[in-house]
């Protein structure tokens, strides 16, 4: 409250809904997906390993190196939630998220919907590409390695309805793309900074959009992903109470406290 009273005179707020009143509505949904079988077992194994390392860090002098290792483990947990084969190359079990996203995309595309699917992990997008090919789902693909000339052609082809699905890496597709022909946006994995996700969603929910936009966030239940969402929402609420919702600060994993890491590892 004290901070807000000090900075309020210097803030000019311009909310999106105030300046773009003609923009169609944006509906957000969260799909909580439960991991099963080998995927759940693998996740539990890595959680125990991280908790053991947290306990070891209490008496260790190499806290900097251990912190790096911890965040490498946290990334592995996130990858297991998406597709365990990213962590264990010879993994033979299922991925609950891949199964769900295939069903969502297939049903939506058969209903004439156009979909943008974002992920932070290009390795995941490539695995989704293989899955879609096996299931005869046509798609376009864009990541940071896509040349600028090709980017324009991919956007043009998608807007001309040559493909109903566009797979895009989160950071590569965060700005500079006009994809208002899409009416469904899927975030396959959560990211620490909600502003980055919002920028990606705005590739479809922007001037020129004539249809209601459905935003789907697929979250692995009782995992680091669900706790990430709760932690992010709480931090964003605090930030929004001081600034506006359109100006959230970066929240990156390197600033996580030990208590917050322990919270992320809680699961049923």
Describe the protein in words:
Mean pLDDT is 84; it is low at 245-254. A 6-stranded parallel beta sheet has the order 1-6-5-2-4-3, sandwiched between helices. Helix 3 (37-57) runs antiparallel to helix 4 (63-82). It has 10 helices and 6 strands, in the order H-H-E-H-H-H-E-H-E-H-E-E-H-E-H-H. The longest helix has 21 residues, at 37-57. The chain has helices at residues 2-7, 16-19, 37-57, 63-82, 96-110, 122-134, 148-159, 194-201, 224-242, 258-264; strands spanning 26-33, 115-119, 140-142, 165-169, 184-187, 213-220. By secondary structure, the chain is α/β, with parallel strands linked by helices. Helix content is 47%, strand content 12%.
Write the layout of secondary structure elements.
Layout (H helix, E strand, L loop, with lengths): L1 H6 L8 H4 L6 E8 L3 H21 L5 H20 L13 H15 L4 E5 L2 H13 L5 E3 L5 H12 L5 E5 L14 E4 L6 H8 L11 E8 L3 H19 L15 H7 L4
Parallel strand pairs: 1-6, 2-4, 2-5, 3-4, 5-6
Helix pairs in contact: 3-4
Oligomer: single chain
Helix content: 40-55%
Q: Strand order, biggest sheet?
A: 1-6-5-2-4-3
Instruction: Please report which band the strand proportion falls in: under 5%, 5-15%, 15-25%, 25-35%, 35-45% or over 45%.
Output: 5-15%
Distance between the termini: 36 Å
The total of beta strands comes to 6
Q: How do the SSEs run, as a string of H and E?
A: HHEHHHEHEHEEHEHH
Main β-sheet description:
6 strands, parallel
Number of helices: 10
Low-confidence stretches: 245-254
The overall pLDDT average reads 84
What is the rounded Rg?
Answer: 20 Å
Structural class: alpha/beta
Shape label: globular
